[in-house]
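2024-03-11 09:14:02 DEBUG pipeline.ingest accepted 1 chain
2024-03-11 09:14:02 DEBUG pipeline.ingest length=310
2024-03-11 09:14:03 DEBUG pipeline.predict start
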Amino acid sequence: MKTIEITNTEKIMFPKSGITKGDLVYYYEMIAAYMLPYLKDRPLTLHRFPDGIGKNGFFQKNASKHIPNWIRTEKIKKEGGWVNHIICDCTETLVYLAGEGTITFHVTLSTIDKLDYPDKLIFDLDPPNGAFGKVIESAQILRSLLENELGLTTYPMLTGSSGMHLVVSLDRSDNFDAVRAFAKNVAGYLVKNYPEDLTIELRKDQRKGRLFIDYLRNSYAQTAVCPFSARAFENAPVAVPIDWIELRNGIKSTRAFTIETILDRLNHIPDPWKDFDNKRQCLSDARTKLENLTIEKIGGNISAKSHKYN
């Protein structure tokens, strides 16, 4: 039997909203059944705030030496050495890590049995100045290309931070280099069609009010926020998988759900990503279709306004 002692449960982790460590631990205990499938077998990067978000936090990849021996760890190769990552595959581990001041859980895009081959592709839509309206418009443009033209089912997620992720479930037939190259070509194609609205420019001072399509996290050892993870902002917003109907019907912010509201939502709306593992897709056909597209053929017709979805 695993014994977990959580200390200082009354410590305030979110000063303005008054959310305590006890509240955070309780949330992760309650959300575990939804969150664990997205954590299982994936090396973790922890975003820890032992003294709350009012003070600087830090990212942790190497497991602490004092963790209980029942917590699973795996040594993962990195350039010049190894990292001893925690693998969160049970509620007890999730609760323990929350008790250690972990607010946000970041996971790799591949699992430990096939680390060089991602099982998901992610486009991170990062808007200028938090303009969520631009996120919605850009998400529909990207979805139209991926689904209508390239035949790839997409899954949207509010990040709980500033933007949104569009995710494609992969069958692990391509390695990271191939997946990243495809993602770069998709993003580049859209930027050529929408130069006034979209950019892949890394420097923020060069984006000039355009939404940044971040494809670079599709790389070995890069991470993404785990679905249902809390974020280190006041009110503890949550990264939430959503469906396209929800996005169309009134979600106004990437921080639309918090640790205090997400459980009630899940009681009424089942996980819209429940078929994610059954939709594993190969990029081979999509890659060929993308190569065959031309600006003259598609032009400006990849428009959210010109497509309707159920």
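2024-03-11 09:14:41 DEBUG pipeline.report The mean pLDDT is 93.
2024-03-11 09:14:41 DEBUG pipeline.predict end
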